[in-house]
Structures are given as structure tokens and as C-alpha cells.
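User: C-alpha cells for this complex, please. No commentary.
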Amino acid sequence: MSDFLTAAATNIGAPEDLVKRSADARSEASGSSVDDILAAWAGGAAAPVAAESPAPDAAIAPEANPAEPAVSSAPSAAPTARVVTVRDPEAAPILVGRRESPKAMILTLLGLLAFGVLVGAWLPAVAASQEASNHVTAQPLYSADAELGREIYLAEGCSTCHTMSVRSLEVDAGLGLITEPEDIANFFESVEGVRRIGPDLAHIGERMEAKDIKAFVSNPTFVRADAHHPPYKYLSADEIDDLTTFLSETK
Amino acid sequence: MVTTNAPATTQVAGRTDATAKWALLIGAFLLAAATAILFMAWTVFTVPSEGAGFLGFGRLFPMATTLTVFGAFVALNLGVLLFLLPRLTGASTNRSGTLAALFWLSTVSAVVGTGVVGFGGTDGRQGFELPWLAELLLVLGVGGIAVIAIKALFDRKEDSIYPTTWFMVGGLLSFITAIAVANLPIARGPGAGIPVAFGRGVVLWVWILGFAIGAMLYLVPKESGRPLFSRQVAIGTFVSLMMAGMFYGLSTTLFGPLPDWAETVGVAMGLLLLVPAVTVPVLLVKTLDGAFDQLQTSVPLRFAVAGVVAFSLGAAVSAISGLRSFAELLGLTTFRDGTETLLVFGAGILLTSAFVYHAIPRLTGRTLHSEQLAKRHLQFTVVGAGGITVLLWLSGIATGSTWLAGIKSSLFAASGEGFSASLTASEWAHPWLLLSGFILFLGQLIFVTNLYRTLISGDVAPVEIVTEVSE
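Assistant:
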């Protein structure tokens, strides 16, 4: 064996002890003798092919020292067998997984997702909508211009800063009537918002007159010097009017 | 398949690795672009009179979040996947051309869609502002990659599944589901926001953070030479993360016009976040046990440790701040934005960057250009994301307290002049917020620069190549 080992180590360009250890591991995995493997690595006959080719990170024997490089080869591919490739020193037995079927994993994941979609999204959404659906009116809540304004409201990212939802909380006491499902029953899009960097607009039409809304949207700092509201100077006069109409009809 | 080391000059990496390399580099670039847009958003918010033309805060902020979530993290996560897929499955990479095409489809859709958001082409769904066509193409791209990844699992050469695979496949399936659910017109009125909130939670906890933690579970054993502490704990972590993520959205709508039972379920499931808040650091520390000295030398390990600290803190705060008593004071304030900044721009960036620093030398065959720059990247990201987090937390507490105090004293209302007063309570934070945002952007700029210099001028190093073993 020592002749083969020396020849294989020379051929590979790796230390003999590493080559020996790798040959042992290879022998254990493939069922062929260590001598056959070393002979193949030394440039002789090809070693018998393993029943199942080992994966890069998972296949090294657990007892191998992870800090040292192992050696592997491409037995039946002559060109690569000559340049016997040295496994990544870090590709150690540390990445051993557990024998399991991917089918079980996929089914588990799909099951979890189905449960989450059902209980975390579908049921709450449908339950909330059902109550609201009793209040959907045949007559639109908004005028045609206001509907255009609502699209501008959404497209301009107004709900990035503004909410349209008065909560049943003490801190919202000054905002007017608590938002009930029927108040937003006619909306398919969500206009409630998730943060309140700007004031809530659920009842803005009651608090401000249309001309004041328009003045503020057009030139916020002219109306209030310390306003952080962006100036929508790029919107056309018609768009400003539509946005104003939407807000003033939101009561 | 075997993973090999060979001189970069004599071997050529497969196309999967080539795509992985570009995905990680483009992801890093998009991350820098997203943080730049975020900085612009806070700038125009602080100084609105200066403005930025049609790019107001309402457009810039969604652009930043969209580019981060659907641009940068899609590219980065696909890079992680394409790097790990052959290494963890040993499966053939003969679909590398398709994978590359699907990656480009996903990334280009996200980038173009973000541009459209900047021109006002959105329907205003918070967190899912991309136009529907861009989302459809994104789903097609990521969905196609998911199909190939799952097929690779069935074609794999070894019979074991490493825990990272759970995080990756679960992330892919969850991401597609999140976009699909967020676009379904299954509800109207008060229910319309629920599917969107569901999608937001899933994308945050499973797609961004789950993927990042999965990548961390691969690189920490590789870098330290220590086996993963526990496979069971790792998979338990993933399951709890997934369950909590799917119900996170409900906890963000407390006290709104939703059924009480739905809110209660959201709060209860949100507490599950305490599990990964504990188990992720346990996995890291126990895996590193006996190899802590490597923190001195390993750049990826240092990033991983910082990322895990950010994740653990963010998950714990998220779990607690979802409780009704906290939501009464902090709901709708910037407090939640602070926590999500910590999770996305802190934990997400740090953990994913750790993987990029691990993978890029192996993919390019070049040593990292500068460890000093990597150190600066770490420092700037921690200071920038940490600064924004703390400021938004304090700002949220100040705003919520002012609303409450105003109501109790009858001095303020939460609208009109009263609302201006509540804003004043947090105005002190604005310049610091700008500074922190700029530092965060600089950190990502340093990251991209370091990677680019590695690509063009790094010293030649062994490249990790996945080669086929004849059977």
C-alpha cells in the first residue's frame, strides 16, 4: 500500500497522511479497498464508483478532523482525476444534516403556510369584511372627483404618514368618532395606514373646510411655517382639486 | 459533486456560482442605493421646503423600503441560495442558465418597479407598493427559482438535509405566498389591510430574517470549524419564526376595526418571537464554544455576532411591544419603525453581509480587498442602524406620551395644532436621524467599494468550485 500511497500523494500533491485518511473514508463510503482507491489516485485503474456520490459538506466522516483538509477525487473522469481536487479545508463534517425526506420538509412547510394564511390572513379578513359588507351602500360614498382624489392619495403615499382610523383608545379621543367597519366598508384598498407621522384624516372633512385643505396641500409652509408636510407643487391644479375633494368628503 | 479548492487561474466556476457572485454584488449595491434613498426621505421630511421635486417623503420612503425588501434582499437571498444550493444538495447545476435568467427577471422587476413607485405608480399598500406587474414578474422569477431549488432537493446526492435548507426553502415559499396573499382581493373595508399586513410580517420575519439566520447557521460552523450546536433547536427556531411572522401583521392593527379574536391571536402568536430571540444567540454561542478566539480574525464571524445581537434585541422588543398595554401608548408612533429598522438594516444587513464576506472570496478567487474597510462597514452599520433605531424608539415614546398627556390635560388634541405640538416633542431627533441615516449609507457604500475592489484587485486566492463526480 505504501507504494501506492506515496505515488498517490505525489500525484495529488498532498501529504501522505491526508491522502491515507481520505482513502480510508472513500473506501468506507464506496465499499472498495483502500489499495484500489490509492492505485487509482496514483494514476492506475479507476477506482470503483461509490454507490452514491457524497455531497460536498455532508459526506465526510463525522470523526474526521474538521481543521484539516480532506482529499477527494473524480475517479472515472480521467482529466479531473489527474488534478485530484483538494476539498475545501473548511468543508468539514460540521455540516452534517439529518437523514430525512425532502418531501416531509416541503409538506411541513406548506402545512405551516396554509395554517398561517388561513388563520392569520383569510379568516380575520373575511370576518372583518363580513361585518362591513352589511353596510356597503349601492350609492357611492364619494363623488367621481373624490374617487380620483383617492387614487392620488394612495399613489402619492399619503398613507405612509397619515392614518384614516380612529381607534378605541384614550389617545385618539380628540380625533372624533371611532372608526367602525361601516365607515370604510366601500374601500377595497386599505387606507387605514400604519403610522401617524401626520395627523389622522378619518374625519378631516369635518375639521377643515375644502379651501383650507387645498391651501395646506398646495403650500404647507405658507399656511404653517413649521409644517413638515411636503409641497405637492408638481401636481396639476385638477389633481390638487381632486385630492381636496376626496379629503373634504372624508367625514 | 465535490467542493474543491483550486487556483482561480486554472479552474472556472460554474454558472450557478457566477450568478451567485453577481447576485451578492448587485444586492450589496442595491442596499447602498436603498439606504441612500432612505437618507433622502428623512432629509426631505426634515427640510420639506427644500423638497426634492416630485420625490416627496410619501414617494421616497416607499421607494427605500421597496428597494430594500424586493430589490436588495431578493438579490442577496438569491445569491445565498445559488451559492448554497449545490453545496448543500450536491445536486446538478445544469439549470444554471435558467437560474441566472430568473434571477435577472426578479431583480430587474424590483428595480424598475421601485422607479415606478417614485413616479407615483402605486396603489399605496404599505410595504407592498410595487406595481402589480412588477410583483407578478418577481413572483415568477423567485417562484421559478423555488421550483428548481426544490427539484434539486429531490435530486440531491446525499441523504441528509442541513437546517439551513429549511430556512431557504421556507423563505422562498413564504415570499411567494406573501406576495400572492397581499394581492388577493379577498376582503374589503376594514379587512382589506389584513392580507397586506400578513405579507409584511412574512416578508420581514421569514424572507429577510429567516434567510439571514439560515445563512448564518451555515457560515458559523464553516468559519469556526465547530459543528452546529443543535439541529433540532435550529429547526425549532425556524418554525417559531415562521409562525410568529405569519401573525405579526395582526398585532400591528390593534384597537382598529378588526374582530377582537383576531387581535388576540396576533398578540399571542407575537409572543412566539421570544423563542428565536433566545434560541438564535444560543445557537451562535454554543456553536462557537471553544472557538471564540476566531472572532479576532474572522470578518464574517464578527458580523454574525453583531447581527445576532441586533436580531435578538429586535425580536424581543417586537414580541413585547405587540402587547396591548404597549400598543396603547406606542401604536402608530415611530416606535415600531425603530424596531423594524433594527431588524432589517441592523440584523438583516449584518447577517447577510457576514455571508457575503464568507462567499465572495470563494466565488471570485480573490482575498477580501481590505479587512479594515470591512471593520468600518461593521462599525458604520451598527452606529447608523443603531442610531436610527434608538432615535425612532425615543421619538415614538415621546410622541405617544405627548398624545396621552394632551388628552389627559385637555391641552392638546391629536390633530391640528395639537398634533403639531406632538411633533415638536420629537423634532430634536430629526438632525440626529439624518446623521445616523448618512452613517448607515456610508457603511453600505464602504461595503460595495470593498467588494468591488476585491473583484478587480484582490490577491488571488483559492476559489471554491463545485465539480461533478462521475457516477
